[in-house]
Write a structure and sequence with these properties.
25% of the residues lie in helices and 25% in strands. The chain has 11 helices and 25 strands.
């Protein structure tokens, strides 16, 4: 609790909402996730026949239950960089006859024990929708169309009958497909120029839609907007000039870090510092706006009445284990052991997850799909030989997936600002609001990205009458606090007592639920 004296010197933010000023309906597929066979994510974390909780198919029930509770609406698979050297035919048929292949993307042996059929079974058990990627790196449009034939055709052809032979009489009916992955990246197997990729995406779309005209297709957009990717945003324009009328979405990827040490030796340049946290939402918003502008330019160029929207099919936070901030007590630092980075996600990571999700809600007129990367370990920690538990980041995602159901409202927000290094003054309070007319509720998601200042949020909701009925919060005096197998509930959401003031502590995630009377 805060004393009256403390409240008197707190900074203030003002939020005004009006039910008649809407952004658009929130597409629930914004709350999707992504898995890829890297390390023990799939083999160990999801498929693990030797685990004590394994079901009859070898899937871990402890992980399955956490995925069901998470509320992920779709699950993208199998890549990622992995897809550009993957042959989907290696992962079908009797498991004991599937070939082991060398995965050139992650430099490991791929056993192919989890293929299309097993993935589809797992997604059904989770209660999500499947989203598959096809190989347009070393693969061909013909192979992509054959994959559609295997998954979506009733029967009567070689590949649809092959699926039946494998025990799946009914089609998997997979409707969302990614046309390759990060084809602008030098690390990608079969990297292409924008024009080369645009042409192969056009041809793949044409052949795939010949088999199933009802599928939705995602073309590869810029896989980052930082200076290490000089093709951005020209890539997006050139690609769409080749395949605009044949695809539905443009894929964007972005990973953020607030600790230069966390990205050393990776393809990611040094980005932000812990003092620059308020800049990340602005950076992502500019990324989305710029690519939409490129797409809309091509729309005009082609005199098209079709709008290409965004599938942000990889996003995440590269966790900091050694971040420091002057004036903060970092006594519970999660120090790497023996030179290996521990993957436990801390409180700051959870707040940034919330910030990114807020950005997607506020851009829901153009962002229709988004996949958090990678759900196993980043939101659900799964020891291949032990237990699974919820990371700190699990909770903001789960709450937004649950409560962001309805119409996103334009937020009239006045926020205090702070000076950031290289980015100038930035607001450090961020909000998104969703109105559900059926349930008569308004949910406001709010982050305080400031490191030191608590803020009083003054809300003015332009409805007949509203009442704040619930305030859920993630905040901890130790910003690097994490959950562990020994203490899996070190950081969990807590109910805040309703009072006449809404206080947002520094580095906090808040869910404010109002009842419209």
């Amino acid at each position: 609790m805060y004393s009256r004296q403390e409240e008197g010197i707190m900074k203030r933010a003002k939020l005004k909402l009006d039910k008649d000023f809407a952004i658009g309906k929130v597409d629930k597929r914004i709350f999707s996730t992504f898995i890829e066979p890297i390390g023990d994510i799939v083999y160990g974390g999801i498929y693990n026949p030797d685990h004590p909780t394994a079901d009859e198919q070898g899937f871990r029930n402890d992980v399955l239950e956490l995925m069901q509770e998470l509320g992920s609406t779709a699950i993208r698979y199998p890549g990622g960089n992995f897809i550009s050297g993957y042959n989907w035919k290696d992962g079908i048929g009797p498991r004991d006859k599937r070939p082991a292949r060398y995965d050139k993307a992650w430099k490991r042996i791929e056993s192919n024990q989890m293929g299309i059929d097993e993935y589809t079974d797992w997604v059904k058990k989770v209660g999500s929708e499947p989203m598959l990627a096809v190989n347009l790196g070393t693969g061909t449009p013909e192979e992509a169309s054959q994959e559609i034939e295997y998954t979506n055709m009733e029967g009567g052809t070689y590949y649809s009958d092959l699926r039946k032979k494998h025990g799946y009489e009914k089609p998997h009916n997979i409707k969302m497909w990614c046309l390759g992955n990060e084809m602008d990246g030098s690390w990608q197997m079969g990297q292409k120029t924008a024009k080369e990729y645009g042409r192969v995406a056009y041809e793949a779309a044409k052949q795939m839609r010949t088999v199933d005209p009802d599928i939705e297709l995602v073309a590869c957009g810029s896989c980052a907007n930082d200076k290490s990717h000089p093709s951005y945003p020209e890539w997006d324009r050139v690609v769409l000039e080749e395949c605009y009328e044949d695809v539905d979405y443009l894929a964007l990827h972005r990973y953020y870090s607030y600790d230069p040490e966390a990205v050393k030796g990776t393809v990611f340049p040094e980005q932000f510092t812990v003092e620059d946290l308020p800049c990340i939402a602005n950076d992502m918003t500019q990324f989305i706006d710029t690519v939409c502008a490129a797409a809309d330019y091509v729309k005009g160029l082609k005199y098209s009445d079709k709008t290409i929207n965004i599938c942000f099919d990889e996003w995440g936070v590269i966790s900091s284990q050694t971040a420091k901030a002057e004036g903060l007590d970092w006594t519970e630092r999660n120090i790497p052991k023996e030179g290996k980075r521990i993957e436990n996600m801390n409180v700051i990571d959870a707040i940034l997850f919330g910030s990114i999700l807020i950005t997607f809600i506020n851009k829901c007129d153009r962002v229709k799909i988004a996949c958090q990367s990678i759900v196993i370990h980043r939101m659900i920690k799964a020891d291949p030989e032990g237990a699974a538990f919820k990371q700190t980041t699990y909770y903001p995602f789960q709450q937004v997936a649950k409560y962001a159901d309805g119409i996103a409202l334009k937020s009239g927000l006045q926020s205090p600002t702070k000076e950031t290094d290289g980015y100038g003054e930035q607001p450090f309070i961020q909000t998104a609001a969703v109105y559900n007319e059926e349930s008569g509720t308004v949910t406001v998601f709010a982050t305080n990205l400031g490191l030191r200042d608590s803020v009083v949020l003054e809300d003015k909701l332009q409805f007949d009458e509203v009442e704040l009925i619930e305030h859920i919060q993630i905040h901890d005096d130790q910003p690097l606090a994490v959950n562990t197998a020994e203490n899996p509930e070190r950081v969990v959401p807590k109910q805040v007592e309703i009072s006449d003031k809404v206080v947002l502590p520094p580095l906090s995630w808040n869910v404010l639920r109002y009842k419209v009377k």
